[in-house]
Amino acid sequence: MPVAIITGASKGLGRALAEALAARGWDLVLDARTAEVLARTEAALAAHGTRVTALPGDVTDPAHRSGLVAAAWKYGGVDLLVNNASALGAEPLARLEGLSLEGLRRALEVNVVAALGLVQEALPLLRESEAGAVIAVSSDAAAEAYETWGGYGASKAALDHLAAVLGEEEPALRVWAVDPGDMATDLYAAAVPDDEEPRPDPASVVPAFLRLLDERPASGRYGAPSLLEGR
User: Fold this and answer.
1) Is the pLDDT of residue 192 over 90?
2) Selected catalytic residue, list 138, 139, 155, 219
3) Are 89 and 98 in contact (CB under 8 A)?
4) Which of 10, 152, 155, 219 is flagged as catalytic?
5) Which end of the chain has the smaller Cβ count within 10 Å, N or C?
């Protein structure tokens, strides 16, 4: 069975994608910071009959990243790496004039540095896969200027560029930066707590990710809404 590492997988998009892959028979290595929530996710996914290893921890910790890749190696390798774990840099979001530099460093460390660190750890196993792929979960804030989204958007723009370069450097892999669009997640609620507009459930965009895995288009940046429209 194929093996996926998914970060930020205890809830939201990470869990929804993990659910879909488990239903397809994928073996999973999951990461999140909150052990209790992650354990409940692990139990729910194991009901599909697939193998699931859930390792609570912080992706900025090199030892934790090594542990995720080691767990995948025990399942036979890494066919898919999903860098989904994200940090906002400020909760709620703040204008640049008041953005904490420490918060910006945290966003860059989680969204960019840790993501690259995990790719570096997993790359030897990804290269051995017949269908190795990396998904970097991006944001429209990486490409558009929205007030208060500067720090988070800058980190996601950097992640997009890393994904683009990785795609050039590793032509045998597929490397996709994916903008999932607006979703009803805890991350969005923390970013803009006063926004009461209804947002789509994360599970509604999962078919876009599955389409990438099924059709394996060229490495590049994709928007989930356009992938869903083209189904």
Assistant:
1) no
2) 138
3) no
4) 152
5) C
For 139, phi then psi, to 5°, come to -160, 155
Under 8 Å between Cβ of 154 and 89: no
DSSP state of 204: G
Instruction: Tell me the three state secondary structure of residue 200.
Output: coil
Distance separating alpha carbons of residues 195 and 139, to the nearest angstrom: 18
Active site residue 152: yes
3-state secondary structure 156-179: HHHHHHHHHHHHHHCCCCEEEEEE
pTM of the model: 0.95
User: Using one digit for the tens of pLDDT, what is the confidence trace for 121-178?
Assistant: 999 999 999 999 999 999 999 999 999 999 999 999 999 999 999 999 999 999 999 9
The verdict on whether 222 is a catalytic residue reads no
